[in-house]
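Recall that a protein's primary structure is simply its ordered list of amino acids. Everything else, from secondary elements to tertiary packing, is in principle encoded there. The following example makes that idea concrete.
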Amino acid sequence: MNGLDIACFGGVENGQVMDIYFGDESGFVYQLDTGDSDDGDPIERYFVNVFSGNNPEQGVTGAHEYRKQFQGFDTYIRPTEDNLSMIPYYATDLMDDLQVRTSGNYTALSEETVNGWTGDGTKHKKNRFFGLSGKTLALKWEHNTVAQNFVFQPSLLRYDYRSKIDIV
C-alpha cells in the first residue's frame, strides 16, 4: 500500500467474503485487493491443509480425538511461472480457525524450488516426517516472491493411528 493517501476504510459483505474499500482526500473511493499485480512488492500467498482424520461422507466424525503418527505428505503444485520457491510449514493439534491462521504456531521446513520437482505442468514432491505425531496436522505452504504464482492441486497425507499401550 505504498503511495496511498488513505482517509478512511470500509468493507461490504459480498457472499462469504468482505470487499475492502478506502477513500482518499480527493473524495474518490477505491476497492483494494482486486488483482494479482504485485506492483514490485511481494504478495504473501499461502494455502493450508488441515487434517483431522474426520470424513463426514463416510460417517467418521471423532477421529480428531485420536493420536496419529504422521509419516509424510505428497504435494502437487502447478507453478504459473518458470520459477517458484515455497516454504512448507507444519503444526500439530490446532483446533480452531484462529490457531490455523496464526503464523507463530507453525514450524518451518526447508525451502523448496517447485520447478525442480518431477512432473510436467503440475509438479509432485514426496516429503517425510520423522517422529511427528498429534491429533491433527496443519500443513501450510507459503510464498511471497515478486512475479511468482501457483495453483495448488489435491494432495495426500500418509499417517497411522497410534495405539496406547498400558504398562501394568
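Residues 97-101 form the longest helix (5 residues). The chain has two domains: 1-34, 37-161.
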